Amino acid sequence: MNRSMKPSHVMILAVFAAGLVTLLLFISRCSTFSNVLLETENSLDRFLLQQSMLHDRLKSAVAEIDRVTQDSQQKPDLPTIYAITPTYKRFTQKADLTRLSQTFMHIPNFHWVVVEDAEKTSKIVKDLLTVKKIRFTHLAVKTQVKLLKKESDPHWKKHRGVDQRNLGLRWIRENIKDKSGVVYFADDDNTYDIDLFEEMRFTKSVSVWPVALVGGLRWEGPICVYGKVLSFFTAWQPEREFPLDMAAFAINIDIIQKYRQSYINPESKLGYLETDYLQSFNIKKEDMEPKANNCRKILVWHTQTVEPKMKQEKRLKALGMASDPSIDI
Ligand code: UDP
Ligand code: MN
Questions:
Q1: What is the pTM of this model?
Q2: Which of 130, 186, 286, 308 sits at 20 to 30 Å (Cα–Cα) from 140?
Q3: Which ligand is nearest to the CA of 161?
Q4: What is the distance between the alpha carbons of residues 86 and 96, in angstroms, rounded to a whole number?
Protein backbone atom coordinates (compact mmCIF):
# COMPACT_ATOMS: atom_id res chain seq x y z
CA MET A 1 0.00 0.00 0.00
CA ASN A 2 1.28 3.42 -0.96
CA ARG A 3 1.73 5.23 2.41
CA SER A 4 2.63 8.63 0.87
CA MET A 5 -0.10 11.28 1.02
CA LYS A 6 -2.34 11.94 -1.85
CA PRO A 7 -2.43 15.53 -3.14
CA SER A 8 -6.12 15.72 -2.15
CA HIS A 9 -5.20 14.93 1.48
CA VAL A 10 -2.54 17.60 1.43
CA MET A 11 -5.14 20.07 0.17
CA ILE A 12 -7.63 19.15 2.90
CA LEU A 13 -4.93 19.46 5.53
CA ALA A 14 -3.84 22.84 4.17
CA VAL A 15 -7.43 24.13 4.17
CA PHE A 16 -7.93 22.80 7.67
CA ALA A 17 -4.70 24.45 8.89
CA ALA A 18 -5.65 27.73 7.24
CA GLY A 19 -9.11 27.54 8.85
CA LEU A 20 -7.56 26.89 12.22
CA VAL A 21 -5.20 29.83 11.88
CA THR A 22 -8.09 32.10 10.83
CA LEU A 23 -10.17 30.88 13.77
CA LEU A 24 -7.32 31.50 16.19
CA LEU A 25 -6.76 34.94 14.73
CA PHE A 26 -10.49 35.67 14.98
CA ILE A 27 -10.63 34.56 18.61
CA SER A 28 -7.61 36.66 19.51
CA ARG A 29 -9.13 39.65 17.68
CA CYS A 30 -12.40 39.09 19.46
CA SER A 31 -10.72 39.10 22.86
CA THR A 32 -8.80 42.26 21.92
CA PHE A 33 -12.07 43.73 20.70
CA SER A 34 -13.87 42.85 23.93
CA ASN A 35 -10.94 44.31 25.87
CA VAL A 36 -11.29 47.49 23.88
CA LEU A 37 -15.04 47.45 24.51
CA LEU A 38 -14.48 46.97 28.25
CA GLU A 39 -11.91 49.74 28.32
CA THR A 40 -14.29 52.10 26.45
CA GLU A 41 -17.09 51.21 28.86
CA ASN A 42 -14.81 51.92 31.85
CA SER A 43 -13.70 55.26 30.53
CA LEU A 44 -17.32 56.12 29.72
CA ASP A 45 -18.25 55.27 33.32
CA ARG A 46 -15.39 57.42 34.59
CA PHE A 47 -16.48 60.23 32.30
CA LEU A 48 -20.09 60.02 33.47
CA LEU A 49 -18.98 59.98 37.11
CA GLN A 50 -16.81 63.05 36.53
CA GLN A 51 -19.73 64.69 34.74
CA SER A 52 -22.08 64.04 37.63
CA MET A 53 -19.48 65.26 40.18
CA LEU A 54 -18.97 68.38 38.10
CA HIS A 55 -22.71 68.84 37.89
CA ASP A 56 -23.01 68.60 41.70
CA ARG A 57 -20.16 71.09 42.18
CA LEU A 58 -21.72 73.46 39.72
CA LYS A 59 -25.10 73.14 41.44
CA SER A 60 -23.63 73.93 44.87
CA ALA A 61 -21.66 76.84 43.38
CA VAL A 62 -24.89 78.23 41.91
CA ALA A 63 -26.63 77.70 45.26
CA GLU A 64 -23.78 79.58 47.00
CA ILE A 65 -24.09 82.46 44.51
CA ASP A 66 -27.85 82.48 45.18
CA ARG A 67 -27.21 82.54 48.91
CA VAL A 68 -24.79 85.46 48.59
CA THR A 69 -27.23 87.28 46.29
CA GLN A 70 -30.04 86.59 48.73
CA ASP A 71 -27.84 87.90 51.55
CA SER A 72 -27.20 91.12 49.68
CA GLN A 73 -30.93 91.39 49.08
CA GLN A 74 -31.74 90.77 52.74
CA LYS A 75 -33.44 93.68 54.31
CA PRO A 76 -31.52 94.60 57.45
CA ASP A 77 -34.77 95.73 59.08
CA LEU A 78 -36.36 92.31 58.54
CA PRO A 79 -35.62 90.00 61.51
CA THR A 80 -34.03 86.65 60.68
CA ILE A 81 -35.73 83.38 61.50
CA TYR A 82 -33.32 80.83 63.01
CA ALA A 83 -34.91 77.41 62.69
CA ILE A 84 -33.23 74.61 64.66
CA THR A 85 -33.85 71.16 63.18
CA PRO A 86 -32.63 68.00 64.89
CA THR A 87 -32.33 65.10 62.45
CA TYR A 88 -31.14 61.48 62.50
CA LYS A 89 -30.29 58.78 60.00
CA ARG A 90 -33.21 56.66 58.87
CA PHE A 91 -34.83 55.58 55.61
CA THR A 92 -36.99 58.69 55.36
CA GLN A 93 -34.38 61.27 56.42
CA LYS A 94 -33.57 62.58 52.95
CA ALA A 95 -37.26 62.65 51.99
CA ASP A 96 -38.17 64.62 55.14
CA LEU A 97 -35.26 67.06 54.76
CA THR A 98 -36.04 67.54 51.06
CA ARG A 99 -39.64 68.45 51.83
CA LEU A 100 -38.49 70.78 54.59
CA SER A 101 -35.85 72.50 52.47
CA GLN A 102 -38.39 73.05 49.71
CA THR A 103 -40.58 74.88 52.20
CA PHE A 104 -37.75 76.88 53.76
CA MET A 105 -36.27 78.02 50.42
CA HIS A 106 -39.29 80.31 50.03
CA ILE A 107 -38.70 82.17 53.28
CA PRO A 108 -36.66 85.39 53.18
CA ASN A 109 -34.15 86.14 55.94
CA PHE A 110 -34.04 82.56 57.04
CA HIS A 111 -31.17 80.66 58.63
CA TRP A 112 -31.46 76.90 59.00
CA VAL A 113 -29.50 75.33 61.86
CA VAL A 114 -29.48 71.62 61.10
CA VAL A 115 -28.12 69.42 63.89
CA GLU A 116 -27.52 65.76 63.19
CA ASP A 117 -27.86 63.15 65.91
CA ALA A 118 -24.49 61.68 65.02
CA GLU A 119 -20.79 61.80 65.98
CA LYS A 120 -20.08 63.92 62.92
CA THR A 121 -21.94 65.56 60.08
CA SER A 122 -22.86 63.22 57.22
CA LYS A 123 -22.29 63.56 53.49
CA ILE A 124 -25.92 62.85 52.68
CA VAL A 125 -27.15 65.84 54.75
CA LYS A 126 -24.24 68.05 53.69
CA ASP A 127 -24.92 67.40 50.00
CA LEU A 128 -28.60 68.09 50.46
CA LEU A 129 -27.92 71.38 52.24
CA THR A 130 -25.26 72.68 49.85
CA VAL A 131 -27.46 72.41 46.77
CA LYS A 132 -30.38 74.25 48.38
CA LYS A 133 -30.71 78.00 48.22
CA ILE A 134 -30.90 78.33 51.97
CA ARG A 135 -28.48 79.89 54.42
CA PHE A 136 -27.56 77.09 56.80
CA THR A 137 -25.31 75.90 59.59
CA HIS A 138 -24.59 72.19 59.77
CA LEU A 139 -23.71 70.67 63.15
CA ALA A 140 -23.71 67.26 64.81
CA VAL A 141 -23.92 65.83 68.32
CA LYS A 142 -24.79 62.32 69.33
CA THR A 143 -27.59 61.93 71.88
CA GLN A 144 -26.20 61.08 75.33
CA VAL A 145 -26.53 57.39 76.07
CA LYS A 146 -28.78 57.98 79.09
CA LEU A 147 -31.32 59.70 76.85
CA LEU A 148 -31.45 56.91 74.30
CA LYS A 149 -34.64 54.93 74.17
CA LYS A 150 -34.29 51.16 74.53
CA GLU A 151 -35.22 49.01 71.52
CA SER A 152 -38.15 47.59 73.47
CA ASP A 153 -39.45 51.00 74.62
CA PRO A 154 -42.36 52.62 72.82
CA HIS A 155 -41.51 55.59 70.56
CA TRP A 156 -42.70 58.25 73.04
CA LYS A 157 -40.78 56.82 76.01
CA LYS A 158 -37.77 59.17 75.78
CA HIS A 159 -37.19 62.77 74.72
CA ARG A 160 -35.91 63.04 71.17
CA GLY A 161 -33.70 65.73 69.66
CA VAL A 162 -32.83 67.42 73.00
CA ASP A 163 -29.02 67.47 72.73
CA GLN A 164 -29.32 68.58 69.11
CA ARG A 165 -31.68 71.50 69.89
CA ASN A 166 -29.37 72.56 72.73
CA LEU A 167 -26.31 72.54 70.47
CA GLY A 168 -28.28 74.65 67.98
CA LEU A 169 -29.17 77.08 70.77
CA ARG A 170 -25.55 77.28 71.90
CA TRP A 171 -24.39 77.94 68.33
CA ILE A 172 -26.90 80.77 67.99
CA ARG A 173 -25.91 82.27 71.37
CA GLU A 174 -22.23 82.19 70.45
CA ASN A 175 -22.48 83.29 66.84
CA ILE A 176 -25.44 85.60 66.39
CA LYS A 177 -24.83 88.89 68.11
CA ASP A 178 -26.62 92.22 67.71
CA LYS A 179 -29.05 90.92 65.12
CA SER A 180 -32.80 90.96 65.33
CA GLY A 181 -34.50 87.62 64.94
CA VAL A 182 -36.48 84.74 66.37
CA VAL A 183 -35.62 81.16 67.22
CA TYR A 184 -37.95 78.33 66.25
CA PHE A 185 -37.63 74.56 66.76
CA ALA A 186 -38.59 72.96 63.45
CA ASP A 187 -38.54 69.16 63.73
CA ASP A 188 -37.76 67.42 60.47
CA ASP A 189 -40.98 65.45 60.03
CA ASN A 190 -43.58 68.17 60.57
CA THR A 191 -45.42 70.04 57.81
CA TYR A 192 -45.09 73.82 57.76
CA ASP A 193 -47.11 76.43 55.91
CA ILE A 194 -44.72 79.17 54.80
CA ASP A 195 -47.14 81.76 56.24
CA LEU A 196 -46.22 80.52 59.73
CA PHE A 197 -42.79 82.13 59.39
CA GLU A 198 -44.21 85.55 58.59
CA GLU A 199 -46.47 85.18 61.64
CA MET A 200 -43.51 84.56 63.94
CA ARG A 201 -41.01 86.97 62.35
CA PHE A 202 -41.78 90.01 64.52
CA THR A 203 -42.12 88.10 67.81
CA LYS A 204 -41.26 90.44 70.70
CA SER A 205 -40.94 87.83 73.46
CA VAL A 206 -42.67 84.48 72.88
CA SER A 207 -45.28 83.96 70.20
CA VAL A 208 -47.67 81.01 70.19
CA TRP A 209 -50.15 79.21 67.90
CA PRO A 210 -51.89 75.83 67.67
CA VAL A 211 -50.33 72.66 66.20
CA ALA A 212 -52.49 70.06 64.45
CA LEU A 213 -52.36 66.27 64.83
CA VAL A 214 -50.62 66.25 68.19
CA GLY A 215 -51.38 65.07 71.73
CA GLY A 216 -53.94 62.61 70.39
CA LEU A 217 -56.10 65.51 69.22
CA ARG A 218 -57.04 67.23 65.95
CA TRP A 219 -55.14 70.19 67.33
CA GLU A 220 -53.61 71.30 70.60
CA GLY A 221 -52.61 74.78 71.67
CA PRO A 222 -53.56 78.15 73.08
CA ILE A 223 -57.11 79.43 73.32
CA CYS A 224 -56.92 83.16 72.71
CA VAL A 225 -59.33 86.03 73.22
CA TYR A 226 -58.73 89.55 71.92
CA GLY A 227 -55.04 88.92 71.31
CA LYS A 228 -54.32 87.34 74.70
CA VAL A 229 -53.79 83.72 75.71
CA LEU A 230 -56.68 82.75 77.94
CA SER A 231 -55.95 79.04 78.44
CA PHE A 232 -54.70 75.98 76.58
CA PHE A 233 -56.61 73.22 74.83
CA THR A 234 -54.99 69.87 75.63
CA ALA A 235 -56.06 66.43 76.79
CA TRP A 236 -52.81 65.12 78.25
CA GLN A 237 -51.39 66.36 81.54
CA PRO A 238 -53.43 69.58 81.49
CA GLU A 239 -51.77 70.64 84.75
CA ARG A 240 -48.71 71.67 82.74
CA GLU A 241 -48.30 75.44 82.80
CA PHE A 242 -47.66 75.62 79.05
CA PRO A 243 -49.01 72.46 77.42
CA LEU A 244 -47.53 73.25 74.03
CA ASP A 245 -45.72 71.27 71.36
CA MET A 246 -42.17 72.24 70.37
CA ALA A 247 -43.58 73.54 67.05
CA ALA A 248 -46.11 75.82 68.79
CA PHE A 249 -43.89 78.75 69.75
CA ALA A 250 -41.02 81.02 68.69
CA ILE A 251 -38.75 83.07 70.93
CA ASN A 252 -37.16 86.44 70.29
CA ILE A 253 -33.38 86.12 70.00
CA ASP A 254 -32.79 88.87 72.61
CA ILE A 255 -34.58 86.68 75.18
CA ILE A 256 -32.48 83.70 74.11
CA GLN A 257 -29.37 85.85 74.63
CA LYS A 258 -30.59 87.32 77.94
CA TYR A 259 -31.38 83.96 79.55
CA ARG A 260 -28.06 82.41 78.65
CA GLN A 261 -28.56 79.45 80.99
CA SER A 262 -31.90 78.44 79.50
CA TYR A 263 -31.55 75.15 77.73
CA ILE A 264 -33.96 72.31 77.11
CA ASN A 265 -33.64 70.07 80.13
CA PRO A 266 -32.95 66.45 79.25
CA GLU A 267 -34.12 65.57 82.78
CA SER A 268 -37.60 67.06 82.25
CA LYS A 269 -40.47 64.67 82.90
CA LEU A 270 -42.02 63.19 79.74
CA GLY A 271 -44.32 65.78 78.23
CA TYR A 272 -42.72 68.57 80.27
CA LEU A 273 -39.91 69.46 77.88
CA GLU A 274 -41.63 72.48 76.35
CA THR A 275 -43.30 73.81 79.50
CA ASP A 276 -40.08 73.56 81.57
CA TYR A 277 -38.15 75.33 78.82
CA LEU A 278 -40.68 78.13 78.45
CA GLN A 279 -40.95 78.56 82.23
CA SER A 280 -37.16 79.04 82.38
CA PHE A 281 -37.68 82.40 80.61
CA ASN A 282 -39.95 83.64 83.41
CA ILE A 283 -42.68 84.21 80.87
CA LYS A 284 -46.35 84.42 81.84
CA LYS A 285 -49.18 83.38 79.56
CA GLU A 286 -50.41 86.99 79.63
CA ASP A 287 -47.14 88.05 77.97
CA MET A 288 -47.38 85.51 75.16
CA GLU A 289 -48.20 86.80 71.69
CA PRO A 290 -50.98 84.84 69.94
CA LYS A 291 -50.41 84.48 66.20
CA ALA A 292 -52.22 82.74 63.33
CA ASN A 293 -55.53 84.57 63.46
CA ASN A 294 -55.74 84.71 67.23
CA CYS A 295 -54.67 81.02 67.38
CA ARG A 296 -57.54 79.87 65.18
CA LYS A 297 -55.55 79.02 62.07
CA ILE A 298 -53.49 75.84 61.67
CA LEU A 299 -50.15 76.54 60.00
CA VAL A 300 -48.15 73.58 61.30
CA TRP A 301 -48.97 69.87 61.45
CA HIS A 302 -47.21 67.26 63.56
CA THR A 303 -47.42 64.83 60.67
CA GLN A 304 -44.76 62.20 61.56
CA THR A 305 -43.40 60.16 58.68
CA VAL A 306 -44.29 56.49 58.80
CA GLU A 307 -41.39 54.00 58.91
CA PRO A 308 -41.27 52.23 55.54
CA LYS A 309 -41.55 48.45 55.30
CA MET A 310 -38.39 46.78 54.02
CA LYS A 311 -39.60 43.18 53.76
CA GLN A 312 -38.52 42.67 50.16
CA GLU A 313 -35.22 44.48 50.66
CA LYS A 314 -34.39 42.13 53.56
CA ARG A 315 -35.39 39.10 51.51
CA LEU A 316 -33.20 40.16 48.59
CA LYS A 317 -30.34 41.05 50.92
CA ALA A 318 -30.35 37.50 52.28
CA LEU A 319 -29.95 36.33 48.68
CA GLY A 320 -27.13 38.81 48.06
CA MET A 321 -29.36 40.73 45.65
CA ALA A 322 -30.27 43.85 47.65
CA SER A 323 -30.84 47.18 45.88
CA ASP A 324 -27.73 49.11 44.77
CA PRO A 325 -26.43 50.72 48.01
CA SER A 326 -24.52 53.38 46.05
CA ILE A 327 -27.86 54.98 45.17
CA ASP A 328 -28.71 57.32 48.06
CA ILE A 329 -32.34 57.42 49.00
N1 UDP B 1 -34.53 62.95 66.47
C2 UDP B 1 -33.18 62.84 66.70
N3 UDP B 1 -32.69 61.66 67.20
C4 UDP B 1 -33.49 60.57 67.47
C5 UDP B 1 -34.87 60.71 67.24
C6 UDP B 1 -35.35 61.92 66.76
O7 UDP B 1 -32.43 63.79 66.44
O8 UDP B 1 -32.98 59.53 67.91
C9 UDP B 1 -35.06 64.22 65.93
C10 UDP B 1 -36.06 64.03 64.78
O11 UDP B 1 -35.39 64.00 63.53
C12 UDP B 1 -37.00 65.20 64.94
C13 UDP B 1 -36.98 65.47 66.45
O14 UDP B 1 -35.79 64.86 66.96
O15 UDP B 1 -36.54 66.35 64.26
C16 UDP B 1 -38.20 64.85 67.16
O17 UDP B 1 -38.22 63.47 66.91
P18 UDP B 1 -39.48 62.68 66.35
O19 UDP B 1 -40.01 63.40 65.17
O20 UDP B 1 -39.09 61.26 66.18
O21 UDP B 1 -40.48 62.80 67.57
P22 UDP B 1 -42.04 62.95 67.57
O23 UDP B 1 -42.39 64.08 66.70
O24 UDP B 1 -42.56 61.66 67.04
O25 UDP B 1 -42.35 63.18 68.98
MN1 MN C 1 -41.82 64.40 64.71
A1: 0.84
A2: 308
A3: 1
A4: 12
